[in-house]
């Protein structure tokens, strides 16, 4: 192995260690220091005639000018018990009819307990413009069904720093990968050196794939907002005014039988003590009579 080859491989290993940055990026990481160094390394590659073969796509003009925010909404709906499941099904169908580019259903469920309690859940994500209209339709549908929207919350997460940082780190990794590839194509060395360089190339490619997936997931959160809807039956509309009296008549026979059973159980538990008490009273009466006879 030539001295020039050793120097080039050492420089590639140092660049790989420097680009690692001590772990994956966090949402609150400041990209001013790490991102700036990574961008400087990425920009040095074209000057040497080794531009990345898969350059990171540039952000949209709107993303460069403004913040990249991820919105998530949560709504609560109360309705009569017979309207809970149809409301959930109608909203789920509206999302599916809109198509996966505008709305995607992530999960739904319906459950009931007792005679008056029904609950449902719908989780989806959709394009912000479509979701604004859909949230208005949810309130209108609840009102038509005799229910109401009990809660409407929104949460926002700023992903601007995270996306800028991961873009810079990804560009640096792409430049490093191309430099290692050129070393493998243009330089000769021993089998162990070639295997070491190929392992370094595989590690860099794995990090590139991971960062690409993280960037895609973050951009998906920015492009499509999340919405979770919880449906619950309203006790005021689910329970009628005469229902307690009807339930009392329904339970009359059962209550009567239960009372009779309680009486039988009481007798079954008390009759041995009753016999013992009768025997004691008989003995006391005989003793009292014998005493009166002696006195007479």
Automatic annotation (TrEMBL):
Which Pfam families does UniProt cross-reference here?
DUF4349
Q: Which InterPro entries match?
A: DUF4349
Q: Where are the transmembrane segments?
A: 270-288
Positions in coiled-coil regions: 194-221
Region (Disordered) spans which residues? 29-64
Give all residue intervals belonging to the DUF4349 domain: 69-284
Transferase is among the record's keywords: no
Provide the leader sequence positions: 1-17
Keywords carried by this UniProt record: Coiled coil, Membrane, Signal, Transmembrane, Transmembrane helix
Q: What is this protein called?
A: DUF4349 domain-containing protein
